[in-house]
């Protein structure tokens, strides 16, 4: 990886932008293909009826859409404009992310408590690993957000693969998680040392060397030994518990409303249990859960850095999901109807795997307020009050990742005082419920027959 840093930056940015444009072209196809109302617009999809065959030149990013203007008579005037712009936007965003994380190393540099020169070339592997993981996460969020904008839904075909790939990445490369800088007399189990250009370790005032380590569920505190010890029974129990919690969350848990003559709660409970069991024991969820259980057990048995990464990702998945789920319940109660779709919950499962639950908390501070502004504008302009929430979660997650170097130093003090965290979460969720209730009151003057 160090050799990559010898390549001139402009050339690296051009290559990353070109790869981003190619990825953007495929993401456009995913947006159209995975939507509930599927549309055959992308040249990477099967050719729609009424248009001529499409060649490889039509599949070129950006240029292909200029050629496909010929199909506007069948697919609609200007249908090619949005996908062309999206490819340009994604290519530019990925190149900017590379410059920010790898060249400017702005996820790690602001975390350093001492003004000592650092040999960033020695951290090339860490920087590129973080960039790749965040680019992959951005790709899945990109597809989910645009489908949510179009249809106000986020399909499982986006969040399931994103969750699995996130767990795979953080298992193989645990340093793909958001970073923290720690000083320890002994190197943490998963870390990379910070060294000066002369090859000397960067040390704190006590003489302990600094390391770049991934944030984990207990950061800034250490992992509890009872959880992360080699082949700990508590560790495998928590890991499998998180995995099966995910399975229960996405299974069919619909509560029956009426059951004909027998409408007692115990009869409904029996029907509910039958639905849940049928979904858990059917393909593909059954196979996914059993395969995941086997793989988790294998990584736990092997131990090491891979188990640290996988367990951190599984806990981040559950806590990210649980937080948004609580917001969904409170918001629905405050508004008297469903506040957000369950796709927003599965989206935060996917995000929580790579960014961790601490970053998910920052998302709660950002996404609701952004949604509130747009919601008030929609009410004032009388354009309805059904607003897709997924794009705001994705924007907030992107903001948190990009400015992690500024976010974590201000947040780690809060997380160090563990007893404050549940209070903060409760206050955030309660404030969200209050804001939604205020929206309900504010829109009444505009709801006139």
Automatic annotation (TrEMBL):
GO annotation terms (biological process)? signal peptide processing
Pfam families in UniProt: Peptidase_A24
* GO MF term set: aspartic-type endopeptidase activity
Domain (Prepilin type IV endopeptidase peptidase): give its ranges: 278-376
Q: Name one GO cellular component term.
A: plasma membrane
**InterPro entries in the record:** Prepilin_IV_endopep_pep, Prepilin_peptidase/N-MTase
Domain of life according to the entry: Bacteria
Q: Would you identify the family this protein belongs to, as annotated?
A: Belongs to the peptidase A24 family.
Can you name this protein?
Type 4 prepilin-like proteins leader peptide-processing enzyme
Q: Which organism is it from?
A: Posidoniimonas polymericola
């Amino acid at each position: 990886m160090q050799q990559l840093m010898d390549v001139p930056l402009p050339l690296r940015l051009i290559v990353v932008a070109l790869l981003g444009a190619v990825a953007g072209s495929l993401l456009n196809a995913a947006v159209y293909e995975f939507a509930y109302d599927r549309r055959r617009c992308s040249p990477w999809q099967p050719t729609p009826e009424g248009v001529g065959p499409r060649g490889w030149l039509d599949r070129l990013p950006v240029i292909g859409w200029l050629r496909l203007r010929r199909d506007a008579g069948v697919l609609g005037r200007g249908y090619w404009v949005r996908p062309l712009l999206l490819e340009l936007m994604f290519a530019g965003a990925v190149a900017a992310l590379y410059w920010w994380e790898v060249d400017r190393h702005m996820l790690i540099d602001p975390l350093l408590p001492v003004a000592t020169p650092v040999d960033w070339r020695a951290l090339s592997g860490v920087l590129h690993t973080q960039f790749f993981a965040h680019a992959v996460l951005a790709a899945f969020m990109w597809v989910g957000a645009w489908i949510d904008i179009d249809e106000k839904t986020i399909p499982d075909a986006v969040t399931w693969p994103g969750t699995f790939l996130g767990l795979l990445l953080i298992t193989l490369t645990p340093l793909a998680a958001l970073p923290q800088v720690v000083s320890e007399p002994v190197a943490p189990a998963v870390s990379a040392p910070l060294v000066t250009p002369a090859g000397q370790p960067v040390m704190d005032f006590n003489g302990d060397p600094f390391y770049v380590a991934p944030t984990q569920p207990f950061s800034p505190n250490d992992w509890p030994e009872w959880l992360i010890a080699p082949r700990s029974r508590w560790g495998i129990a928590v890991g499998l518990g998180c995995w099966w919690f995910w399975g229960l969350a996405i299974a069919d848990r619909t509560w029956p409303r009426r059951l004909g003559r027998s409408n007692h709660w115990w009869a409904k409970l029996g029907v509910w249990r039958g639905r849940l069991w049928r979904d858990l024991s059917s393909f593909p969820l059954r196979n996914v859960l059993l395969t995941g259980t086997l793989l988790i057990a294998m990584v736990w048995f092997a131990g090491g850095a891979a188990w640290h990464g996988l367990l951190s990702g599984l806990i981040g998945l559950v806590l990210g999901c649980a937080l948004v789920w609580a917001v969904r319940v409170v918001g629905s109660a405050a508004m008297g109807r469903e506040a957000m779709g369950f796709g927003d919950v599965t989206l935060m499962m996917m995000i929580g795997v790579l960014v961790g639950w601490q970053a998910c908390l920052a998302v709660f501070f950002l996404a609701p307020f952004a949604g509130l502004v747009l919601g008030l504008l929609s009410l004032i302009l009388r354009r309805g009050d059904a607003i897709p929430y997924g794009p705001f979660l994705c924007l907030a997650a992107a903001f948190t990742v990009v400015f992690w170097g500024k976010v974590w130093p201000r947040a780690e003090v809060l997380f160090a005082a563990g007893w404050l965290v549940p209070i903060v979460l409760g206050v955030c969720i309660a404030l969200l419920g209050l804001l939604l209730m205020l929206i309900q009151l504010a829109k009444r003057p505009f709801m006139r027959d």
